[in-house]
Each structure stands twice: as structure tokens, then as C-alpha cells.
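Protocol step 4 of 6: structure prediction from sequence.
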Amino acid sequence: MLVPFIYEQYGLLCEQDESNRSSGLLYGNDSLFLFLKNHFYLQDMRALAGLTHSLRLQGEEDIAMMIPDLRGEYVTTFQGVPVVLLSVSNDSRKNVQMPEELAGFHNRSTLAAAEQAEHSSYMNGTTYWAKRIDDLRNQYYQSLRQEQLSPFKARFMSVFPYFSGLAENAIQYMTDLRIDKGLIEPPAVCHYRFSNETWGRSGKRVKNPADWVIDHPSRDLAEWLRRSVWNGQIQTEQQLIDFLNQYHQEREITSHTKAMIYGRLLFPIPFIEIAEEYFALDGERDEEQWCGKLEACISRTESYVAFLRWYSDRVFHDVKVVDWLS
């Protein structure tokens, strides 16, 4: 079904990739994939395509390039759903350590990202964070007025004051940082949630523009640290230090970047996301499943806060830290 669709809409004569029958197609030495448009964090497809081409021209490897259809548009409808065609080269490439490659990616994307920074997370400061915690606070007060609470809501009510306090600490920290320092470092192309899996799990790296956002590079470093610690992917403290040192060899981690990492790590994203997903659901929820997610989050928070204390001492010795972690 995909092969005739690609030929009709894009004029490309491709074949099914037998190693990836679910979605992959082969066109010459490239693999083609259809991605849902609503899975992209940046929604200006023409501007995003310009970003991919700019980075490719600067020598950035492994980028999934966006392919225009025969009309010159980057969004096409497949079975009633808006989709984007991505092309990934299957050529072999040099082996570079991920932290070093991430730093190079940030370096090469800084100029291109600055052109799209006006409405980015970096320029909007903590407005988005504040709105998210305010929305959950509204859920908290609505639940206070309910006579009967679901098991999830009851547990949410018991811990929300603590997590909202963490969020307010993070927001105040980042607000003070912006007042004191301003926007002294330009944004880059970053990832919504960077982790060891973002560029692929099979050994071949793929930089998918669907994952991209415009933000300060500290975002990717903070999210890698958070995910690695949260999921138990780090066995020793030295692994964290090594990751940052390898990145630093290619792109300096300034004291301002350290402060940006710290502020983002303070914000309790795992708790926020679980609560947001629960309250966004319509109808019946699997209370046991959602309570399990929330309890796992609560139990991991203690060790995560211990990590923040260690990190404040080892890495942020030249950066202001919040009183309760000092």
C-alpha cells in the first residue's frame, strides 16, 4: 500500500524493506519512513525542512531529511491523516562518542536555531512551566471539592503540595537566573527529551526532526542526566562526570549552562507528566495502572533528590544552589 502511495505523491519508485516490513521502504541507499505530522514538536514544516538542510550542508550526519511531495509540500495526507516523508541514508559513517556528537550538533545548529528562536521555549522562559503547574493546581482544588476521590486522585492530593513546591523552586531559580544574567547564550536545536535512545537503539544513529525543539543546549544535557538517573541506567557517578567531560571537550559547559541544567533538573517533570496524562484522559481509567505509575514516581523521587544533592556538590560548586539542597 505504501509503495504506490509514495510513487503517486512523491514520484519515487521504492520497494518494501524486508527487514522492516511494518513501515520501512527502500529508495536507492536510503530508507523512507512516513511520520505523523502531529508527532512533530516543531509544526512549521517548511522552516523545519530548512533546518535539516542547513545542518546537512554543515556536515551533520545521520539526519532524517524531509522530502517534499510533487506539489512541493512537506505535509501529505495518507488515509485521511497528515504525514511527513523522511529519508535516512544507510551509508556507513565514522564512530563518534555520543556526548561529543551531541556537542557538535549543538554547535552546528546554533546559527540556524537563532532564526527560529522567537517563539521557542528558551525565549518564553518559565511561562510554560508555570502554566503546567497552575493547571495541575486547578485539578488539585477541583478535587478538594469532590466528596469521593478515585485512588489516583487521593494519592495525587497527598503529594501535590510537595511536588508543586519543587516546581516553584525551579521556576523561581530560573526566573532569578534570567534577571541576573539575561539571555547570554544563544539557543540551539535540541530534543524534546534527549536520552540514550533518542538517536536510535540499533547502533545506527538517526537524528529525527520530529524530536527537535529550539532551546538552550542545557536542555539536552539535563534530560539525559534525568533519564539516566531516573531509569537506573547509570551505575557509577563517574559515568555522569565522563558524559559531561566528553561533551565539554567539544563545547564548553559554562557556569551559565550548569545553572540552566540545574534549574531544569529541579523541575519535577516525571510527576508533572504522569498527572497531566491522567487528567487528560476521558472516561474510565485503569486506576491500578495509574496508581502504580504514580507510586513508582514517588519512590524514585527520594533517590533522585539525593542525586541532586550530590550533583550540587560535585558539579555545581561554582553555581548558586537552592537552600534545601545545599
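Step 5 (inspection) to follow. The first strand starts at residue 15 and ends at 16.
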